[in-house]
Design goal:
Elements (H helix, E strand, L loop, with lengths): L3 H20 L21 E4 L2 E4 L4 E3 L11 E7 L6 E2 L13 E9 L8 E3 L8 E2 L2 E3 L3 E12 L2 E9 L6 E3 L4 E8 L5 E8 L2 H8 L15 H4 L2 E4 L2 E4 H7 L3 E2 L20 H13 L55 H6 L18 H12 L10
Length: about 375
C-alpha cells in the first residue's frame, strides 16, 4: 500500500496533464504561403468550452475610434513570433516583422428572444467578453479577417463563420449574409451583411494606390493610444505592447499622438469628427490613397481648408453630389456633399463605397453637427 499511492498519484498527474494538453490550443501557426481552408488552421482564436478564446501570445487591442461596419462589434488581435517586435512610427502603421498575424473578428451581440439572424444594434459590449475572449452564448460571430506579414508582403484572407459557430471557412470570393438589426426599442432593420472578397480588401488596405500593396489600417499610434481592459488589468495599449515585447521605440503614452473617441462627449466636437473621418475615410482620402484624385483629404493630417472639403467643388462625383455644389459648406450640413453621401446606402452615391450596407445614423449626426458648428459660408466657385 505504501508504494501504490505514489504510483497512482503519478498516473493521475500524467492523466490530468494529457487532458490539459487535449483541452489546450496548438501553438499559433504562421502560414508562410497559401490560404488555409479553416480559421482554426491558424490557431489564433478558436471556439473552446463555450468561448471564443485567444491563444497564448495573442494580444487583443482596440481603437480610440473604430471603423463603422454595419454596427458590428470587433475583436482585434496581434500575434508575433518570439524574439521580434514592431517598430514604432508616430504617424504611419507600425513596421511589423515577418510572421506577424493580425486578426479581426466581426460579431454582434445576440438580440434578446430573437432568431439566429436577429442581432442587436448596440454599442454596449460589456456582456460580450469572457476574459479576453468572447462569450459564445451572447454573440453571433460573422467573419474573421486575417492579415499576415509574409516575405512577399501583407496578405488579406477572409473567413466566414459557419452557422453552428464552430469554425470559420475560407471565403476568397466574399459572402452575403442576411441579418436583422434589432434596436433597444424593438425597431427592426433587415440588411445584407457583405463580406468583402480578397480584391476588395486591397481597395481599403492599399496605403499606396500606385503599388497597391496591402497594409494594416488600425495599428497606428493615434488609434492605439488608449487603455484596454486586459485579463490581468487595465493598461495603456502602447505600454502593454512594449511590455510583452511586441513594440519597440515607443515613447510614453503622454508623448504619443492620440485620436479622440468619437462618442466621448468630453472631447471637442472637432476632435471627435476629425477622428471619425480619419478612420472611416482617411485610408482612401489621402495623398497616396485610392481617392487621391478627388483632392479631398480626410485623414487627421488634413489642413482645415479646401483639402478638407471646405467650399471645394467635387471632382467626378457624378450623382453622388446630390446636386450640391461643395463637399463641405460651413454652417450648412444639408448643403454639403459629405454628409449627403454618408447618409445614403445607394450604390454609386454612398460613401464609403465598401464595408457597409446600412447608414451609420450616429456618425452622420456627428458630422452634421460638426459642419453646423463651423462659421463662414461658400458664395461662389473660385
Amino acid at each position: 500500500m505504501t508504494t501504490w499511492f505514489p504510483r497512482a498519484g503519478l498516473l493521475l498527474a500524467l492523466l490530468l496533464a494529457a487532458m490539459g494538453c487535449q483541452r489546450g490550443l496548438d501553438p499559433v501557426a504562421f502560414q508562410a504561403e497559401g490560404r488555409p481552408p479553416k480559421l482554426s488552421d491558424w490557431h489564433v482564436v478558436e471556439v473552446r468550452g463555450g468561448r471564443l478564446v485567444l491563444n497564448q501570445g495573442v494580444v487583443p487591442y482596440d481603437l480610440n475610434t473604430p471603423l463603422f461596419t454595419d454596427y458590428a462589434h470587433k475583436l482585434r488581435t496581434i500575434w508575433m513570433p518570439k524574439g521580434v517586435s514592431a517598430k514604432y512610427d508616430p504617424t504611419d502603421t507600425f513596421d511589423f516583422p515577418l510572421g506577424t498575424v493580425i486578426s479581426k473578428t466581426f460579431y454582434y451581440p445576440r438580440a434578446a428572444d430573437g432568431s439566429f439572424s436577429d442581432v442587436a444594434r448596440t454599442y454596449d459590449s460589456s456582456r460580450d467578453f469572457a476574459g479576453e475572449g468572447l462569450d459564445m452564448a451572447r454573440v453571433h460571430l460573422v467573419e474573421t479577417r486575417i492579415l499576415v506579414r509574409r516575405a512577399s508582403g501583407w496578405a488579406a484572407i477572409p473567413y466566414v463563420w459557419k452557422d453552428d459557430q464552430s469554425d470559420a471557412l475560407l471565403a476568397r470570393t466574399g459572402a452575403v449574409l442576411p441579418l436583422t438589426l434589432v434596436a433597444g426599442d424593438g425597431a427592426r432593420e433587415d440588411f445584407n451583411y457583405v463580406v468583402p472578397d480578397e480584391s476588395q480588401c486591397a481597395s481599403c488596405h492599399a496605403q499606396d494606390w500606385v503599388s497597391r500593396k496591402v497594409h494594416p489600417i488600425g495599428p497606428k499610434a493615434r488609434h492605439l493610444n488608449r487603455d484596454y481592459r486586459y485579463a490581468g488589468g487595465e493598461e495603456n495599449q502602447l505600454t502593454h505592447l512594449a511590455k510583452v515585447g511586441y513594440l519597440s521605440g515607443a515613447p510614453s503614452p503622454a508623448q504619443a499622438p492620440r485620436n479622440a473617441n468619437w462618442m466621448d462627449e468630453h472631447a471637442s466636437l472637432d476632435a471627435r469628427a476629425r477622428a471619425y473621418l480619419d478612420i472611416n475615410c482617411g485610408h482612401c482620402h489621402n495623398a497616396r490613397g485610392a481617392a487621391n484624385t478627388t483632392a479631398l483629404t480626410l485623414d487627421i493630417s488634413a489642413a482645415e481648408d479646401r483639402h478638407l472639403g471646405l467650399c471645394k467643388p467635387p471632382v467626378a462625383a457624378g450623382r453622388g453630389t446630390g446636386d450640391h455644389l461643395f463637399d463641405l459648406v460651413p454652417g450648412e450640413p444639408e448643403a454639403s456633399i459629405l454628409p449627403y453621401r454618408m447618409a445614403s446606402a445607394e450604390p454609386g452615391v454612398m460613401m464609403p463605397e465598401l464595408g457597409r450596407s446600412t447608414v451609420h445614423r450616429e456618425g452622420v449626426a456627428l458630422i452634421k453637427a460638426w459642419i453646423a458648428a463651423q462659421s463662414g459660408g461658400c458664395t461662389s466657385i473660385h
